[in-house]
Amino acid sequence: MPPHPRESTDILISGGGVAGLMAASAFGAAGFSVICVDPAPPVTDARAEGADLRTTAFLQPAIRLMQEIGLWERLAPHATPLQIMRIVDAGGPAPEARQVHDFDAADLSDAPFGWNLPNWLLRRELLAHLGGLGNVSFRPGLGTAHVLTRETAALVRLSDGARVAARLLVAADGRNSPVRTAVGIGATTLRYGQKALAFAVTHPAPHGNVSTEVHRSGGPFTLVPLPDHAGRPCSAVVWMERGPEIRRLAALPRADFEAAMTERSARLLGPLTLASRLTVWPIISRIAERFSAERCALMAEAAHVVPPIGAQGLNMSLADLRLLRDLAAASPETLGSPAMLEHYHRSRWPDVRARVSGIDALNRASMAGMPVLREARAGLLQLLYSARPVRKGLMRLGMGTGSG
Ligand SMILES: Cc1cc2nc3c(=O)[nH]c(=O)nc-3n(C[C@H](O)[C@H](O)[C@H](O)COP(=O)(O)OP(=O)(O)OC[C@H]3O[C@@H](n4cnc5c(N)ncnc54)[C@H](O)[C@@H]3O)c2cc1C
After folding, report:
1. Which of 59, 164, 317 to mutate to test the pocket of ligand 1 (most atoms within 8 A of CB)?
2. DSSP 104
3. How is the chain split into domains, by residue range?
4. For 221, which of 88, 198, 257, 302 is 20 to 30 Å away at the CA?
5. Of 109, 41, 30, whose CA–CA distance to 70 is shortest?
6. What is the arithmetic mean of pLDDT over 160-167?
7. Pairing of strands 6-14, 34-38
C-alpha cells in the first residue's frame, strides 16, 4: 500500500483531554492551523460510562485566558463562583472542626477567587466551541503513534497510518505522555500510596459559594460548590485517603458510605447524600525533566502532575498554555523555533517546580496522622494561611496578581 501523503499543519496537539481541547481553542483563536488527536472520544454526558465526574475550580488567570479566546461566554452560565476558601483542621480525637480559617476574595478585589465547572461539561462545551473554528480539526479515535523531529518540523505518524508535519507538536497527552517518551524526556515521580474519590453530594445547609478543605489524616476532604441538584444545595467532593482505605470506602453499602463521608466532612453542611457515582483517581506528583524538545512543547499533565490541593493542576496547565499562545502569537513566523521553546521551558519549569514542591509538602502534612505531626500540620496551615504577608502572597498567587 502506498504511504499516506503527508499533511502539514502549524500545530499538532497530541491529546484531547480538557487541557488539549483548551489548547486547540486557544491556538485556533490565534489564527493557527491546528490538528488535535485523541484515541479516546470525549465523554460529554455525566451519566455515561467513563464520564469524568471531577470538577475544576478555575482561578482568575484561567478565567481571563478563557475570556480572551472566546470560551468564557459559553461556560459562564454553568459555573459556580468561589467566594470564600475555607481551611478546616479537624485533626483532634473526634472529627470536629477545631480551627477554621476563611480567605475571602473580597479582601483582594470585587471578583471571586474563581469559578467551578464539571469536567464532563467542559468537554461538551469545548467540543461545541471547536466545531465553530474552521482552522481547527479535532480527530477523536486517532492517537499519536510515532514521532520523529527535524529542525524544521515534527513528523508524526498517527494510529491510522496518516502522516502529519507540524511546526509545533504540543504534548497534552496526559501523565504517561507517549510524546514525552518518544522525544526522550524523563520525569521525576513522587508517590504517596494515596488515591482520591471524586463524586457529587447534596446537603441541607447551603454552601454559600464557600470551597472547604477539611484536614484530618490520610489527605484532605474537599467540598467545592456546584449549582443546586434536584432542588437541594450541591457540592463536588474530592476525598483523598491511602489506597486501601479508598478501596474499603468505595466498597461500602450506600448508607454506610454516606455516614462515613458525613463524619469525615465534620458535619459542616449537615448529613451528606450521594448524588453521583464514585470515581477513583490515583494521586502522584510528577514533573518532566524539561518542558521542551526539538519542535515539541510539553504542557498540562504531560509536563506536571500534582495532588488535587489548592486547585492548581489544570490552572497550572492553562498558565503553560497562555505562555505558549503568547509566544506563538507574538512571532508566528518563529513558531516551534529553538528560541521560542527554550523561552517556554525556562519560564515555566521553575514556577511549576516550586508549586509541585509546595503542594507535595501540603499533601504530606495533610496525610500525617500522628498527633505530633497533626500539631505540626495545624501549625503549618496556620502559618501558610494566617500570617498576613504569607497569606496575602498565597492569595495573590491564586489570583495571578503576584509574580507567580
Ligand atoms: C480528583 C481530582 C480533582 C482535580 N481538581 C482540580 C481542580 O479543581 N482544579 C484544577 O486546576 N485541577 C484539578 N485537577 C487536575 C486536573 O483534573 C488535571 O490537571 C486535568 O484533568 C488533566 O488534564 P490533561 O488534559 O493534562 O490530561 P488527561 O485528562 O489525562 O488527558 C490526556 C489525554 O491524552 C490522550 N492520549 C493518551 N494517549 C494518546 C496518544 N497516543 N495520542 C493522543 N492522545 C493520547 C488520553 O486519551 C487523554 O484524553 C484534579 C485532579 C484530580 C485527580
Report:
1. 317
2. E
3. 6-47+119-189+287-368
4. 302
5. 30
6. 97
7. parallel
**pLDDT tens, 215-257?**
888 888 999 999 888 899 999 999 999 999 999 999 999 999 9
Task: Give 294-329 pLDDT, tens digit per residue.
Answer: 999 999 999 999 998 877 889 999 999 999 999 999
Identify the residue whose cell numbers are 472542626.
Answer: 97
Cell of 294: 526539538
How high is the pLDDT of residue 138? 98
Could you give the C-alpha distances from 401 to 110, 115, 353, 394, in angstroms and in order? 14, 17, 19, 10
Any bridge partners for residue 166, and if so which? 9, 154
Q: Ligand 1: which of 139, 173, 324 to mutate, judged by most atoms within 8 Å of the beta carbon?
A: 173
3-state secondary structure of 388: helix
Residue 8: what residue type? Answer: S
**pTM summary value:** 0.91
Indicate the SS3 state at residue 257. helix
Fold held by 6-47+119-189+287-368: FAD/NAD(P)-binding domain (3.50.50)
Pairing type for strands 114-118 and 80-82 reads antiparallel
Asked if residues 126 and 71 have their Cβ atoms less than 8 Å apart, the reply is: yes
Q: Measured in angstroms, how far is the CA atom of residue 317 from the centroid of ligand 1?
A: 10
Could you tell me if 43 and 300 are in contact, meaning their C-beta atoms sit under 8 angstroms apart? no
Between the CA of 246 and the centroid of ligand 1 the distance, in Å, is 21
Quote the DSSP letter at residue 76: G
Place of cell 504530606: 364
3-class DSSP state of 392: helix
Q: What is the Cα 153 distance to its own chain's centre? A: 29
212 CA to middle of ligand 1, Å?
23
Testing ligand 1's pocket by substitution, the residue of 314, 316, 322, 324 carrying the most ligand atoms inside 8 A of its CB is: 314
Interatomic CA distance for residues 296 and 8, integer angstroms: 15
| Interval between CA 17 and ligand 1 midpoint (Å) | 6
Which residues does ligand 1 sit against, CB inside 6 Å?
Answer: 14-20, 37-40, 54, 56-57, 143-144, 172-174, 178, 196, 198, 238, 281, 300-301, 308, 311-315, 317
